[in-house]
Amino acid sequence: MVRIQRRKLLASCLCMTATVFLMVTLQVVVELGKFERKKLKNANLQDGHKNVEEEPNHLNPFPEKEALALGVKNAMDIGSYPVVLWWSPLTGETGRLGQCGADACFFTINRTFQHHPMTKAFLFYGTDFNIDSLPLPRKAYHDWALFHEESPKNNYKLFHEPVITLFNHTATFSRHSDLPLTTQYLEGVEVLKSRRYLLPLQSKNKLREKLAPLVYVQSDCDPPSDRDTYVRELMAYIEVDSYGQCLQNKELPQPLKNPASMDADGFYRIIAQYKFILAFENAVCDDYITEKLWRPLKLGVVPVYYGSPTIADWLPSNRSAILVSDFPHPKELARFIRQLDHDDRLYEAYVQWKLKGEISNQRLVTALRERKWGVQDINQDNYIDTFECMVCRRVWENSRLQEQGLPPKQWKADISHLSCPEPTLFTFSSPVSPALRERSLRELWLPSFQQSKREAQALRWLLDRNQNFSSEYFWGLVFKD
């Protein structure tokens, strides 16, 4: 009897222990879920993507309607609001009623809205644009909008006329796009004028005892611009400290080796010690300008720039950067940099604009003042919100025209909205070792660009038919003799 009671007591204890364990586990799961959601919200905010749950009601003119919209799970009636569907799930928002001035649209990544009668526009993120899934057949009132701020190497077929002209609205790095993102990596005029990281020239001259005149920091090796080939040749004529994975000859401190640390204060202070930095883009396209240029200008380092042929239109002054295109060979560029390195008067001419806090380029000042979005500025919309609202307003504009019995406006992108020439390789007399040539990606970019032309033509032909197609059929057209 005693043994049975003991067994019952033991069983009770085990049940209680199991119950406590389950309760604790459930609580941990709940807390982890809260933590992950909080982390996701913070990530969205850091990325510049608004999360609707974070927005206070006083910013939302339609709090009740938005709450209703957020509860939509399927393509049900959402009232009279146009639906703008992110076909590429860039924002991650399952549903949000967004206010764009006097207009409002329902923004979603829920593809069940594809055939909803209120769906008026499809938004695509260029890097994720692919032939495996497209919203076909495309109805006459379906606008397509492209957001693509990235390098052409991410999706070359977008950079050809047959594909870019598929879109009605664009937001790209080109000044000619509907929403130009040319200054996407520049917070504003004040960061250019700031002297926070600027070291006196006397200090830089002293640091030259242990540092090279030039610094290079790249870990994306052998891109379409073929920058590593140029820098390798330049190294034969002048000393270069190279910290990245490409042509590395110097080590960053361990905490700064992560690419995410390239905007850290410690990284800034290392780069600010140098007189010159090799600021080479990964592709050569009009108006494709990245942090490679803006970062050294903010730090008071003279950029030796290679990239956008239109760069002179965007520099803070006509003597704020050294342009590689001005020199016929790296040997001449090296000679010029050594001349500036040994002559303080000549060198200071390239930082005079910074010392005086004067930006003489009115095009740049105007572009920063008039752009409708901000960079790392919580008081302004980010460029994704602005892109969404541009499309929303245009959808409403056409809706009102149709209500008045007038023909809708026809928006259509052209080749100036996103185009780059085919990649070109540098040819120097200095031989490249066979081992280096074999493992280099540089030989692949031109064939890749040529193939992307065929891909663009095949895709356009298929989309003009306005029918769904298989990837096998697409590739069959691309490689058809």
Automatic annotation (TrEMBL):
Catalytic reaction annotation: L-threonyl-[protein] + GDP-beta-L-fucose = 3-O-(alpha-L-fucosyl)-L-threonyl-[protein] + GDP + H(+); L-seryl-[protein] + GDP-beta-L-fucose = 3-O-(alpha-L-fucosyl)-L-seryl-[protein] + GDP + H(+)
Indicate where this protein is primarily found: endoplasmic reticulum
Q: Which GO terms describe its biological process?
A: cerebral cortex radially oriented cell migration; neuroblast migration; neuronal stem cell division; neuronal stem cell population maintenance; positive regulation of protein secretion
Keywords (alphabetical) are: Endoplasmic reticulum, Glycoprotein, Glycosyltransferase, Membrane, Signal-anchor, Transferase, Transmembrane, Transmembrane helix
Q: What is its EC number?
A: 2.4.1.-
* Pathway assigned to this chain's UniProt record: Protein modification; protein glycosylation
Query: Which Gene Ontology terms of cellular component type are present?
Result: endoplasmic reticulum membrane; Golgi membrane; nucleoplasm
Q: Which residues form the Fucosyltransferase N-terminal domain?
A: 82-181
What membrane topology does the UniProt entry give? Answer: Single-pass type II membrane protein
| Entry superkingdom | Eukaryota
Intracellular or extracellular location(s) = Endoplasmic reticulum membrane
| Any Pfam family the entry gives | Glyco_tran_10_N
Role this protein plays: Protein O-fucosyltransferase that specifically catalyzes O-fucosylation of serine or threonine residues in EMI domains of target proteins, such as MMRN1, MMRN2 and EMID1. Attaches fucose through an O-glycosidic linkage. O-fucosylation of EMI domain-containing proteins may be required for facilitating protein folding and secretion. May also show alpha-(1,3)-fucosyltransferase activity toward the innermost N-acetyl glucosamine (GlcNAc) residue in biantennary N-glycan acceptors. However, this was tested with a library of synthetic substrates and this activity is unsure in vivo.
So what family is this one in? Belongs to the glycosyltransferase 10 family.
Q: What is this protein called?
A: GDP-fucose protein O-fucosyltransferase
Q: Which organism is it from?
A: Mesocricetus auratus
Q: What gene does the UniProt entry assign to this protein? A: Fut10
